[in-house]
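Priority: medium. Attachment 1 of 2:
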């Protein structure tokens, strides 16, 4: 019996599984689909995600698939320079989400169980029973990473407050049999220009369209080549011609978040915990950061040495971050409306002020995210391969060595397994060790 079941083999579920396995925990990922998705979905990894993937030795397998390194992000299409961010990776990596997921999955010890849609969940004082693909699976914990339409969330009746969608958009990957010169030639930041086109590998183009026609269809109405052709012709003139529609999906600007990330023995992460308009490119980043925040805490809890409240600190730390992303994406959605040109002009001017631009860059890139009791992420302390904390420039007091790896270094730092610094020299090492890593410490 595994210690943890993970519902959903998207990037979030896979990274949770990777983090747990790294810490020596047995995990089984249950995935509804028979085969890995071919949908390109997110096309950008924010700097904080690039850091996390690099720290874990996962970036090397992703980079060869990258189409671009963009030294900037954007706020509703307004360029936000990243070059002065305090990170070794001050850029967005332009890469299709499918390659991120594949790189993580390739490193899992236990293969993902596919064709295994979760259909029932019950929990008791000892563990959870999950019915998936018609079979019952038992474990002590369940991580619900089954995406924005999360079945687990519905089965548990978890409150998911927020705002419903008011606009409807279409995202599609297409081939073009003809296009005007200069359109869709370069990988660029998404913009508010109608009929935005981004070149993908293999002659594919990503487009996002939002117009009056899209508002007339229901969420499940098929997207046709004709609909995309009309939108792209309106944007680029008669010289553009859609060939094949390779993948298309309707989405909206609903913004919702689960009230509680923990429901007994079930923990929500990624899109299962929060949905919003994918403007600014933050959704995937949020899911990956949920995964690394949760992984080591759940591992400590399973091993029996998590201090009181450590597992609940997952909700306390991550809920406010996603709540803020919902505010940010709502604001960005409003700024994209056709009749707010004057407000947009003012905001564009404000974001040209270096301090304002830097503050927004810290937020959108994820690099500025800190949690109470931490001083931000360590930029030059790779995480320990086995998911332990790292103590730099000091030796671990006796009894801590199985939880904390000591390393040489001039600047003393105690770094959590998710890369966050919780002590930087001076008094307080002992209390930091106890607060984050200790209970039933063997002296
Ligand atoms: C058009 C578009 C563009 C985007 N662009 C960006 C971007 O540039 N940057 C960014 O950061 N984010 C972006 N996002 C958001 C990003 O794609 C999502 O936030 C990300 O996919 C979340 O990952 P996840 O693992 O939480 O969920 P998902 O990727 O949705 O994975 C959930 C998994 O659970 C499986 N599943 C579902 N139901 C069940 C069940 N009952 N049982 C078992 N398995 C189940 C699904 O098959 C899927 O494999 C974009 C999204 C869209 C739609």
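Attachment 2 of 2:
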């Amino acid at each position: 019996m595994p210690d943890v079941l993970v519902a959903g083999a998207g990037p979030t579920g896979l990274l949770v599984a990777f983090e747990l396995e790294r810490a020596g925990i047995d995990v089984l990922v249950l995935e509804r689909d028979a085969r890995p998705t071919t949908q390109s979905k997110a096309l950008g990894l924010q700097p904080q995600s690039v850091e996390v993937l690099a720290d874990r030795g996962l970036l090397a397998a992703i980079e060869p698939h990258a189409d671009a390194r963009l030294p900037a992000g954007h706020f509703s299409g307004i360029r936000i320079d990243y070059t002065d961010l305090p990170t070794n990776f001050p850029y967005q990596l332009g890469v299709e989400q499918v390659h991120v997921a594949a790189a993580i999955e390739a490193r899992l010890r236990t293969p993902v169980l596919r064709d295994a849609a979760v259909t029932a969940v019950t929990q008791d004082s000892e563990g959870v029973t999950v019915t998936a693909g018609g079979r019952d699976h038992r474990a002590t914990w369940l991580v619900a990473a089954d995406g924005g339409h999360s079945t687990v969330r519905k089965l548990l009746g978890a409150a998911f407050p927020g705002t419903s969608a008011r606009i409807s958009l279409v995202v599609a990957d297409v081939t073009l049999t003809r296009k005007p010169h200069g359109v869709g030639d370069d990988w660029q930041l998404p913009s508010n220009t109608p009929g935005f086109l981004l070149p993908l590998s293999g002659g594919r183009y990503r487009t996002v369209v939002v117009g009056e026609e899209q508002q007339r269809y229901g969420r499940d109405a098929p997207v046709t080549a004709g609909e995309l052709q009309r939108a792209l012709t309106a944007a680029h003139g008669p010289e553009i011609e859609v060939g094949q529609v390779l993948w298309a999906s309707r989405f909206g600007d609903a913004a919702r978040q689960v009230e509680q990330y923990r429901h007994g023995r079930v923990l929500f992460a990624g899109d299962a915990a929060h949905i919003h308009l994918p403007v600014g490119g933050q959704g995937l980043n949020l899911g990956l950061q949920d995964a690394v925040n949760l992984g080591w805490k759940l591992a400590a809890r399973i091993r029996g040495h998590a201090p009181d409240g450590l597992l609940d600190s997952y909700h306390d730390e991550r809920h406010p971050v996603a709540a803020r992303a919902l505010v940010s994406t709502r604001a960005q959605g409003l700024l994209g409306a056709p009749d707010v040109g004057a407000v947009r002009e003012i905001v564009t001017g404000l974001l040209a002020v270096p301090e304002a631009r830097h503050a927004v860059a810290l937020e959108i890139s994820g690099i500025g995210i800190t949690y109470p009791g931490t001083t931000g992420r360590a930029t030059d302390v790779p995480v320990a391969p086995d998911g332990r904390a790292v103590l730099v420039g000091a030796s671990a007091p006796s009894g801590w060595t199985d939880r904390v790896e000591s390393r040489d270094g001039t600047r003393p730092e105690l770094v959590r397994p998710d890369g966050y610094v919780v002590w930087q020299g001076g008094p307080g090492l002992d209390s930091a060790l106890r607060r984050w890593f200790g209970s039933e410490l063997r002296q």
